[in-house]
Each structure stands twice: as C-alpha cells, then as structure tokens.
C-alpha cells in the first residue's frame, strides 16, 4: 500500500492506520461504529502525545528488522487476543519509531458483528487485552475514562442540585463538537441525536465491559 510504503521510507519501524466499520442502519452496527470512532480518536490522540497503546490489526504494519528486534510475538503470549496492541507495547519498550497513516486511501473497512452477543464477545476480547498494557498507559486511559464517566453520572445529581447540570451540559457540548470535527476524518457520519445517545451507551459499556473482561477467557470461533 502506497501510503504505508511512504511512511516506512521516512524511517518508521511500525505503522498503524484507520480501520472503520461499514455503517449500516442496524442498532448494533451504530453502537459498534461509534465505539470504533471513539477508540480511534483516543488512540490517535494518545499516539500524537507520545503514548501509543493500540492499533487495529487490519491496518497495521512493521518492518522485518523491527519485528526481529522485539523478538516477534515471543513477549506477547500472555493473552490470546490483542497481539497488535502488545506488539506496539514491545515497540515502545524498545524505543522504535512508530508512525500513523491517516490517508483516506489507506482506510481498511470491515463489517461489524450482526448480533449484540457477538459484538460483546468481541469487545470483551479487546478489553481483556488492556489489562496487559504498560502501567503508564493503563493509568492514562483510566484517568481519561473515569473523568468522562464521572461527568456522565453527575447527571443523576441534577435532582439534588441544579448546579450539576453545568458539567453534564458542557460534556454533551464537547462530545458533539469533537465528533462533528473528527467523524468524517475516520470514515464515519453521525447526526446530533445519534451522538448524544451513542455517547451515553459508549460510556456505560466501558464500565460493563471492563468489569466482565477481568474474568473473560478469550475464545476464537
């Protein structure tokens, strides 16, 4: 792929790109697509800040020398899933140069699961991998998600004191603003109502999947 070849020629050891889902009208697809979008936004933002932690295997590449330097998959066998993320972890440990491919021509589309049950199993596999991230990335991700969840749950306190309306209002406005800026960059399109509803589902699912993933055992069909 030309976009990857150009980046490798610039001296990158590992590269990851954008891997959106093909959007349909099904509710499971909307949930999965929105989650994928949010994951990409966080993934690329953290990478630009110097903390790469995740990559989609279907849009992921590395040089042979880099693969040999990190001893291939030798240090990623603690879990059956997430070998792409764990290879990235090993690359960071070995101070390899990690780059991003954002060209629309390099998008790698795929289909979402058809049922929520299968989607949940897929997300539990992905979430269980996060337990094997570096400590620094686990702390940063925890702080990010906890702050978002606290803001979301502050809406419950509106009935106690109207002052709590302000943080949830600001969060909703910020979420809409961010999604409107970035959704097309990552191959998606959501309207305002979808953004609000799907953002709430997304935050609640983070808690749900994180709790279940602790005892989850990866299985491949």
Structure explained in plain terms:
Helix content is 54%, strand content 4%. The protein is mainly alpha-helical and 221 residues long. Helix 5 packs across helix 8, helix 6 packs across helix 8 and helix 7 crosses helix 8. The longest helix has 22 residues.
Question: DSSP strand (E) fraction?
Answer: under 5%
Q: Write down the secondary-structure element order.
A: HEHEHHEHHHH
Mean pLDDT comes to: 89
Largest sheet: 3 strands, mixed
- Tally of DSSP helical segments: 8
Low-confidence stretches: none
**CA distance, first residue to last residue:** 29 Å
Strand count: 3
CA gyration radius, whole angstroms: 18 Å
Helix content range of the residues, please?
Answer: 40-55%
Brief descriptors of the model:
single chain, 221 residues, mainly alpha, 3-stranded mixed sheet, 8 helices, globular
Strand and helix layout:
Layout (H helix, E strand, L loop, with lengths): L1 H8 L4 E3 L10 H22 L11 E3 L1 H6 L13 H11 L4 E3 L15 H14 L5 H19 L11 H18 L9 H22 L8
Parallel strand pairs: 1-3
Antiparallel strand pairs: 1-2
Helix pairs in contact: 2-8, 5-8, 6-8, 7-8
TL;DR of this structure?
With 221 residues, the chain is mainly alpha-helical. It has helices at 2-9, 27-48, 64-69, 83-93, 116-129, 135-153, 165-182, 192-213, and strands at residues 14-16, 60-62, 98-100.
């Amino acid at each position: 792929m030309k976009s990857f070849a150009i980046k490798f020629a610039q001296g990158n050891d590992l590269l990851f790109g954008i891997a959106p889902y093909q959007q349909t009208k099904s509710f499971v697809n909307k949930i999965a697509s929105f989650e994928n979008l949010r994951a990409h936004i966080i993934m690329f933002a953290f990478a630009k800040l110097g903390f790469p932690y995740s990559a989609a295997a279907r849009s992921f590449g590395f040089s042979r020398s880099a693969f040999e330097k990190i001893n291939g998959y030798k240090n990623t066998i603690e879990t059956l899933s997430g070998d792409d993320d764990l290879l990235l972890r090993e690359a960071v440990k070995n101070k390899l140069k990690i780059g991003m491919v954002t060209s629309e021509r390099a998008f790698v589309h795929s289909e979402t699961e058809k049922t929520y049950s299968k989607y949940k199993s897929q997300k539990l596999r992905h979430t269980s991998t996060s337990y094997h991230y570096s400590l620094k990335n686990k702390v940063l991700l925890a702080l990010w998600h906890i702050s978002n969840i606290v803001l979301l749950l502050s809406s419950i306190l509106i009935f106690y004191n109207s002052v709590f309306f302000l943080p949830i209002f600001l969060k909703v406005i910020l979420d809409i603003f961010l999604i409107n800026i970035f959704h097309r960059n990552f191959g998606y399109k959501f309207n305002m109502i979808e953004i609000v509803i799907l953002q709430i589902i997304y935050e609640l699912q983070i808690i749900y999947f994180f709790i279940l993933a602790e005892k989850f055992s990866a299985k491949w069909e």
